[in-house]
C-alpha cells in the first residue's frame, strides 16, 4: 500500500468573532494512511482544561474546532497539525474577538460571465463583517454544496466558487449570501455557458493548370475553325443551288424544236418518225451544270 504525506486541501481561515458568539475553525486534509490531527493555541496543545467548552472533531478528512462562546481571552493564533508515517503538515489562522459589530459588506461583488462549454469558471466575492459573516453560494435560489464539480474555497475575506468544467445546463443566476448577527448582504450575477458551435465547411477552389488552359484554348480555336468551314460549305452549296436553278431556267426557256414545214418536193414525216424526233429531243435536254445552245433546225431539202 502506497503512502502519502498529509496535505491541507483547504487550510484554516482567520475568524473575527463578536464577544459571546461562536467561533469555528475548519480545515480539509488528505493523506495515506489517514493522519492524526492535533490542535494548538499560540503553540500550546489545546486541552479541555485550557479551552473549556471547545468541541474538536475529525471525520472524512475534515478537522473542526468550535468554541461556543468566545471572550477576549480567546484571541490568538490557532493551528492544526496532521501527522502520519509519511510526514506532517500544519495550517494556522487568527482569532480576533471584538465587542464591535459590523454587518456584512461586499468590497468585491459577483461579476457576470460568458464562457465556452467545458471551460473552468471561478466566481469571486470579497466580504467583510464583524463577526465574520457566514457566506453561502446559490444557483437559481438553491444552495450549492461543495463537491468535486462545485468547490467553495475561502482565503481571508475572499470567497470563491470553482466550477471544474462548465456546461450549458450550468447557466443561470448565481448569488452569494453573507450574514452575521449584525445583518445580511447579497450579491447576484449571471453565468452563461455557450455550447459548441458547428464548424463551417471550408470553401473549395478549382485550380486550372496552364496545360488545361492551353487545351481549352485549342478546343475553342478548333470549334471556330469548324464553324468557319461549315459556313463556307453552306455558302458554296447555296451558290451551286442558285447556278443550278439558272441553268434549269435557261433550259426551260430554250425554244422547242419545231419540225420544218413540208414542201412539195419533200416527203411528209410519218407520225412515228415525228414522235421519235420529239422523244429524242427530250432525252437531249441540256445538262444542269453547262450552258448548251439549242440545236439548229435541219435545212429543208
From TrEMBL:
Q: What are the start and end residues of every segment in region (Disordered)? A: 194-301
Q: Where is the Ig-like domain?
A: 6-98, 104-192
Q: Where are the transmembrane segments?
A: none
Which regions are flagged for Low complexity bias? 209-221, 263-273
| Compositional bias ranges of the Basic and acidic residues kind | 222-233
Please give the SUPFAM superfamilies that the UniProt record associates with this protein.
Immunoglobulin
Matching entries from Pfam families are given as: I-set
| PROSITE patterns in the record | IG_LIKE
Question: What is the protein named?
Answer: Ig-like domain-containing protein
Q: Which organism is it from?
A: Oncorhynchus mykiss
